[in-house]
From TrEMBL:
<dbReference type="GO" id="GO:0015192">
    <property type="term" value="F:L-phenylalanine transmembrane transporter activity"/>
</dbReference>
<keyword id="KW-0813">Transport</keyword>
<dbReference type="GO" id="GO:0015188">
    <property type="term" value="F:L-isoleucine transmembrane transporter activity"/>
</dbReference>
<dbReference type="InterPro" id="IPR051120">
    <property type="entry name" value="ABC_AA/LPS_Transport"/>
</dbReference>
<dbReference type="Pfam" id="PF00005">
    <property type="entry name" value="ABC_tran"/>
</dbReference>
<feature type="domain" description="ABC transporter">
    <location>
        <begin position="5"/>
        <end position="238"/>
    </location>
</feature>
<dbReference type="GO" id="GO:0042941">
    <property type="term" value="P:D-alanine transmembrane transport"/>
</dbReference>
<dbReference type="GO" id="GO:0005886">
    <property type="term" value="C:plasma membrane"/>
</dbReference>
<dbReference type="GO" id="GO:0016887">
    <property type="term" value="F:ATP hydrolysis activity"/>
</dbReference>
<keyword id="KW-0547">Nucleotide-binding</keyword>
<dbReference type="Pfam" id="PF12399">
    <property type="entry name" value="BCA_ABC_TP_C"/>
</dbReference>
<dbReference type="GO" id="GO:0015808">
    <property type="term" value="P:L-alanine transport"/>
</dbReference>
<dbReference type="GO" id="GO:1903806">
    <property type="term" value="P:L-isoleucine import across plasma membrane"/>
</dbReference>
<dbReference type="GO" id="GO:1903805">
    <property type="term" value="P:L-valine import across plasma membrane"/>
</dbReference>
<keyword id="KW-0067">ATP-binding</keyword>
<protein>
    <submittedName>
        <fullName>Branched-chain amino acid transport system ATP-binding protein</fullName>
    </submittedName>
</protein>
<dbReference type="InterPro" id="IPR003439">
    <property type="entry name" value="ABC_transporter-like_ATP-bd"/>
</dbReference>
């Protein structure tokens, strides 16, 4: 059965600041959902909530009807909810393969199955040949790919990518996006993609959710979002 990850009316307050207010989204297995919004709109905070790194002040996180609002990141990862980070966090002195295996082994405790999952993920992102290289010696773009391989090795049902193309040049970014577009077919998971490059988002995401100032500005199929006057005015303006 295909699963759906949802938030219902999620609110996050940090002391005086409301980072998210009443945000409801859904992500289906097999789709790519674009999450848009200007800096500080609450995109990373929403991913933090969905992946258990931030507890919301209000609202719920569910997979189908199962309430996971208070679940820890490792529990959510076991349930197939996995995210990457906006800035790469690799173990510099470990090899590429070890970096990808670390989270897998935390789940499968060194099994052959885990090794195979890590190998598959490295092949998928095109880094199988670099497996024995020390992670600290990788160029930036490949470092980011290791971050994605690491998440894929957990064979997620829902994968959240927080600005995976940040810091890449246009060619590298375009290659990465092609790779991301193939994830649902290859892994059967839903992908939530945070990405600022509008042509990229429009090319790869069938559905978009737009945040502004912690609130939902618009949500729907890409054609609808493209024509939405609020989105055009506040976010797409000039693009
Ligand atoms: N741990 C925290 N403590 C206090 N405020 C925070 C915390 N995390 C985020 N914020 C604030 O919440 C708001 C939303 O931040 P968030 O990082 O979710 O935005 P974003 O949409 O991911 O932005 P960007 O495009 O810059 O990555 C911002 O005003 C930010 O300063
Ligand atoms: Mg962010």
């Amino acid at each position: 059965m295909s699963a759906r990850l949802t938030t219902q009316s999620v609110t996050v307050r940090f002391h005086g600041l409301t980072a998210l207010e009443d945000v409801s989204i859904s992500l289906d297995q097999g789709e790519i959902l674009g999450l848009l919004g200007p800096n500080g709109a609450g995109k990373t905070t929403l991913v933090n909530v969905l992946s258990g790194f931030t507890r919301p002040s209000g609202g719920t996180v569910k997979v189908n009807e199962i309430d996971l609002t208070r679940a820890r990141p490792d529990v959510l990862a076991r349930r197939g909810i996995v995210r990457t980070f906006q800035s790469v966090r690799l173990f510099q002195r470990m090899t590429v393969r070890e970096n990808v295996q670390v989270p897998v082994f935390a789940h499968h405790a060194g099994s052959v199955e885990g090794e195979q999952a890590a190998q598959r993920a490295l092949e998928f992102v095109g880094l199988a040949e670099e497996s024995d290289r020390i992670a600290g010696s990788l160029p930036y773009t490949q470092e980011r790919l290791v971050g994605i391989a690491r998440a894929l090795a957990l064979e997620p049902k829902f994968l959240m990518l927080d600005e995976p193309a940040a810091g890449m040049n246009d060619v590298e970014g375009a290659q990465l996006v092609e790779l991301i577009a193939r994830i649902p077919a290859q892994y059967g998971c839903g992908v939530l993609l945070i990405e600022h490059n509008m042509p990229v988002v429009m090319a790869v995401c069938e559905r978009l959710h737009v945040l502004r100032g912690g609130r939902t500005l618009a949500s729907g199929p890409r054609e609808e979002i493209r024509r939405n006057p609020d989105v055009i005015e506040s976010y797409l303006g000039g693009h």
